[in-house]
Amino acid sequence: MQKQMFFALDIGTRSVIGLVGEQTGTAIRLLASDRQEHHTRAMLDGQIHDVMEVASILDSVKKRLEQTCGPLKKVSVAAAGRALCTIRSTAQLETHGRLLNAEDEHALELAAIQTAQHQLATSNAVADPTLYYCVGYSVVTFSLDQSVLKSLIGQRGKIATIEIIATFLPRQVIDSLQSAIQTVGLEMATLTLEPIAAISVLIPPTMRHLNLTLVDVGAGTSDVAITREGSVIGFGMVPCAGDEITEAISQSYLLDFNVAEKVKRQLSGKAKKVSFVDVLGCTHKVSVQEILDAIAPTVGQLAQSIATQILELNTTAPQAVLLVGGGSLTPMLPEALAQALDVPAGRVAIRRPETIDGLVNIPAPLQTPDAVTPLGILKLSGSRTLNFVNVTLNDTPLHLFNLGNLTVADALLAAGIDIRSLHGRPGLGITISVNGQTKFIPGTRCTPGSILLNGQPASYDDAITENDILRVTPGVDGNTPSPALSEVVDIPVPYTITLNDSQCLIEPVITVNGQPADGGTPLTDRAAIICQLPITLAEVLAATGHTGSSIEYIYQINGTERRYQVRPQPGLHRNGQELAARLSTKVKAGDVITLTPPAAPTAGDILGIAPATERQVVINFNGTPCSIPTVQHTITLNGKPCTPNTPVPSGSVLELTSLERPAPIISDALLAARFNPRSLPPTAKVTLLLNDQPTEYTSPIKQGDSLKTIIE
Fold it and tell me: Which residue range or ranges hold the SHS2 domain (predicted)?
């Protein structure tokens, strides 16, 4: 039986390492390895910039290994840890009081992932969130109507909410890797992340209860992974590594970058001096210590950047730091990092993969810090947990990044289909007010969408495999109601009355938001409806347009035109009987209503000098009370004298003269009492007594006096 073989490639910024192994029981035995450096700077910070240049190196490594192991068709690779990004996001689902199930909970999780996709795309100035793969997520909290719950299943409420932390990998990283390996005739078998590969080699699960930090110092980036309390709690990246040291040497001694790289590698050897030729063609032989002094500030800056990233992820210094990668051999780096973290120097160490659980026959050339990541890629290639699956969704091919068991939900996310659109949303209801009473009209129900997997109904959790066919139909949202007024309001029946000998139809008064309306008027949210049938005398008169039916009189008063209005008095007859009508009296069908014309106003009404309102002095005249005006008015109507009680037709001319008499005399009292001495016999003698004392016609009088006349 032919043993299964695995091919792993570590495509680094400075070099490419290829490993081939075969499955032997539970372990992988190494068969061959090859390492080649890039001819140019085709990769920067772990990202492929020149696909064809990288592909040429891959092809060379592949062909060398094939000479020993035979044809190689599939390869396992790793993406740079710098590409990882975590996003905290939330999502809501309107549940409308129904009982929630596992499908609802899963739909909410997927909606939150899509929200995180959009946040990530926006924050990186990328319009399409489908340019990122979600490599995992964890639920922070569920809540229902603002109450935090462990699970939503079996609960009932109105608004369900979820908060998650989602981790993403840009498709660009994967696409560039895939493009390079496809160029050399290879198929991507598995994909992992460089920090995950490294940590699987040096920090197995049995060590992850410790607070440890693994730093993979490469050429372009320094990847950071942290373990604590039994799991990996975070990944990070510092965009500087060994190339910064090479650049410092190049700048200090005017060296080609590749020459500076060779000088850097000699610093860790036993030689005391290093020889090189600068860009001017001059040969130099410099002591190692001089070069170390020149790069010391740059090494310190690199250590400080790594320490800052560690403290951001871990909040405090870890128990120990494990350094791997070619850049970890940088002189003075472990000591500088220990100082930056303020930990003992012995707690920061360079690790070499002498023995690895799950890998056997590791040759000496691979027992170096820069071999940790490629060995980890080879080790994880046996799990085949990260690969690609090709499916078709709504006639569109999808190339899915597989982080485990792919499901229908993964395909929907990759295609950018909004999970919530499959449920459909109930139509929004509207709230209206009818005669001051609030009324709610619900929207129509939604029509759920459907998911077919190879022609059969499927759910989000159903697994998908190579060449599966998915057909997704979105749900149809319900509609917001727009009813006619007559559909929600009982319109009263009109009735007929007789008003001033005319038949009048009394119809309901209908308005919507203060505007006239009828039964066919469409209603919208927050419509305020008034629909009332006039039933009181005041309402009937208003409905028939008689509210302001007053009669206007026009006069000339002392040469100035004046207007005076008088309202008619309503009367109500029912069944032939006249009733005492008030404006609040209720009216029924068949009632007879008359509006009695008003009498012409009097001079006193028009001029405002009715006797009851005049100032006066009251005395006792011959035992009877007598009022004496203190203001004497003289009124003429159309040139003739008149009294305040005289009716005045419209168009009349009134003249008013008023004379103030603050202290009336006896003659004023006799005039007010209508005592006329001339009506007595000529021989009659009149004696006047004021308060029982003789008095004269010109004597003043005051309030409460007693006046008597004695006729002899």
Answer: 6-202
C-beta neighbour count of 551 within 10 angstroms: 14
Q: In the structure, what pLDDT confidence band is assigned to residue 536 with cuts at 50, 70 and 90?
A: confident
What order of strands is seen across the sheet that includes strand 132-144? 85-94, 159-170, 132-144, 147-149
Q: What is the pLDDT of residues 602-642, one digit of tens each?
A: 888 888 775 544 568 888 888 888 888 777 788 898 989 98
CA 247 to chain centre: 48
Number of neighbouring beta carbons within 10 Å of residue 54:
24
Give CA–CA dist 461/645, Å, rounded. 99
**DSSP SS3 for 253:** helix
DSSP 154: T
Mean pLDDT of the chain: 83
Tokens for 450, please give them: 């459907």
Write the pLDDT tens digit of every residue in 155-209.
Answer: 888 899 988 766 677 777 777 778 888 899 888 877 777 877 888 888 888 888 8
Does the fold of domain 206-352 match that of domain 1-204+357-385?
A: yes
List of E strands, 145-186:
147-149, 159-170
CB 213 within 8 A of CB 310: yes
Query: Which CATH fold topology does 1-204+357-385 show?
Result: Nucleotidyltransferase; domain 5 (3.30.420)
What confidence category does residue 65 fall into, taking pLDDT thresholds of 50, 70 and 90?
Answer: very high
Smallest Cα–Cα separation from 173: which of 336, 403, 11? 11
The β-bridge partners of 159 are: 94
Q: Where are the domains of the chain?
A: 1-204+357-385, 206-352, 393-473, 482-599, 605-711
Q: DSSP letter at 630?
A: S
- Give bridge partners of residue 216 from the DSSP assignment: 223, 324
Closest CA to 478 of 428, 430, 439: 428
Q: What CATH number is given for 206-352 in this structure? A: 3.30.420.40
Tokens of 573: 């007859």
Share of the chain above pLDDT 90, in %: 24
Q: What is the mean pLDDT of residues 563-580?
A: 69
Task: Please name every residue paired with 447 in a beta bridge, in sequence order, or none if there are none.
Answer: 476
Query: Secondary structure of 70-98 in the HEC alphabet?
Result: CCCCEEEEEECHHHCEEEEEEEEEECCCC
